[in-house]
Amino acid sequence: MEKLANPGTEKRRCSWVTDVLLREYHDNEYGRLKTDDSSLFEKLCLESFQAGLSWRTVLAKRDAFREVFFGFDIQKCAELEDGHLESLMLDPRIIRNRRKIFAVRENARATLRVCREHGSFFKYVYSFRKPEPLLSSLKGYGYVFVGPTMVEAFMQSIGILEAHEPGCFLYTSAPEG
Asked: Can you tell me which residues bind Zn(2+) (predicted)?
C-alpha cells in the first residue's frame, strides 16, 4: 500500500483517503456522474462486495472483478452459469463470498428488467434523489444483497448524494437535485 507522500502539502480530501489508490479513486471517480449502464452496474456490484469490508480492499481487487465478470457486461453477467460462479469461490484475486458472487447474476437479471421498463439503468437510477425509495424499488425488481447503507454509498459514489466531507476540495454544499 503506497502511502501519501506529504499529506500536509496535499489538497484537503475526505478523511478516508489514506493512500495513493484511494486518492486516485477519490479525485477521479468518487461522487461523479456515471452515464453508461455497465459502469453503474459495476458500481452497484462493487458496493455489494464492499459490505463488511474496506473500500480499499474492493478497489485493490477491481481489475480482477472486471475480468471474472466480463467487464460487468450486464447481459453476460445475467447469463452466468452456476459452474462459473462456483469456480469464482476458488479465485483468491476477488472477494470470495458466495452470496455476493451469486448476487452479481441476480442483479444483472434485475437490471435487464429495469432497462426494459425504463429504457436504461442510468435513467432509472438517476430518477431517485433519496436512498430509501431507490432501495425499495431495487428490491421490487428483485435485486439482492442491497441494503440501506449500501444504497446510500452507491448514490454518493455516483454523484446523486453529496459524497465529500466538508473541507474536502471536492465538497459542494448544495448537491444537484
From this structure: 14, 26, 164, 168
55 a catalytic residue:
yes
Tell me if 60 sits within 8 A of 69, measured CB to CB.
Answer: no
Strand segments, DSSP code E, in the chain are none
pTM, entire model: 0.91
Looking at residue 3, its pLDDT comes to 55
Residue list for the binding site for Zn(2+): 14, 26, 164, 168
Taking the C-alpha atoms of residue 23 and residue 28, their distance in angstroms, rounded to an integer, is 8
| Partners of 3 in the β-ladder | 19
Any catalytic annotation for residue 25? yes
How much is the average pLDDT of 90-117?
99
16 is annotated as an active-site residue: no
Confidence category of residue 172, pLDDT binned at 50, 70, 90:
confident
Q: Please spell the DSSP secondary structure of 29-43, one letter per residue.
A: TTT----SHHHHHHH
Phi-psi region of 111 (alpha: psi -120 to 50; beta: other; left: phi over 0): alpha
Q: Which one is the CATH code of 37-157: 1.20.58.100, 3.40.50.150, 1.10.340.30, 3.40.50.360?
A: 1.10.340.30
Which grid cell sits at 52?
A: 463488511
Do 103 and 97 touch, CB atoms closer than 8 A?
no
The predicted model gives 120-140 an average pLDDT of 98
Confidence of residue 4 (pLDDT cuts 50, 70, 90): low
